[in-house]
Amino acid sequence: MELPQHPHGFKNCIEVQNETNSSATRFTRDGKQITYKLTVLQEPQRARACGSGAKSSADRRPVDPPPIVELKIYEGPNRERDITYTMSANYFLFATLEQARPMAHPRGTDDKTRLTVLTGTPVAGLVYLDRPSPAGYFIFPDLSVRHEGMYRLSFSLYEELKLPEDEDKAGDVPRPDASSDAHVTHRLEVKSKPFIVYSAKKFPGLTESTSLSRMVAEQGCRVRIRRDVRMRRRDAKGGDKDWDNYEDDTAQARARMSATPELSGSAHHPLPAPHGFVDAAGRPRSASNASHHSLANP
């Protein structure tokens, strides 16, 4: 029997209504109609599982390409006015991971006891960029997944208002996850398309950086850029070796390069103490060469 086909090429995936695009509307105290629109401009495509052992942090590979979500805010019933740049509020986007296919969990386990599969930096602040279009953007260059499988990312938008008149209208129905004394309010969420997380042996490698990644990097955002394709290949002995290193150095690589040989090995091989000159009688002399210069012939 043929499994149901997902529109994006994956079989038996859970269908969601807010994939790639999502919008929500609310009314303020002074009667303004505000509409929020989230769009996943750059979808995650692949990742290499980093595991959950002691060395998982040192051998972590981010999701490729880095997800980029666009935020636009409009005012008016027909979105007549773009107020993304003028809205007096702070925004951040929180990323969570969910299964893209139905999965059966072992008995006796729940969400709290299961190991966190998503690791890295799941929160991104809003940055205002002029390209590809004037809007607010959330960039996630440091997301990794511990276990292989098929997943999708869910991005939740939170807002911190600065003006009392921009708060929700009193007659609006409160959201179940919002409290009266909360400093931030959850507005909406958008989900990415499904992507595959491979094991280290099956990981096909990383592709060249996208034009969108280059574009945001040119505007000052911290995004890893690869100028060529980094695919897996086998060495002469037939063993697997990863060639998916990034062009920029990681923090650990920079630390290893900056450490001097004496300091890096001093913990296990202490340096011998310096010895002075020894005269014929066996008495140690000073290591200073000042006397040699003073006795030099004119």
TrEMBL record:
It holds the Pfam family Velvet. Residues 233-298 are annotated as: Disordered. It comes from the Eukaryota. One of its GO terms (cellular component) is cytoplasm. Gene3D superfamilies: Velvet domain. Coiled coil: none annotated. InterPro entries: Velvet, Velvet_dom, Velvet_dom_sf. Residues 31-226 form the Velvet domain. One of its GO terms (biological process) is positive regulation of sulfur metabolic process. Keywords: Cytoplasm, Nucleus, Transcription, Transcription regulation. It is found in: Cytoplasm; Nucleus. Belongs to the velvet family. VeA subfamily. This is Velvet domain-containing protein.
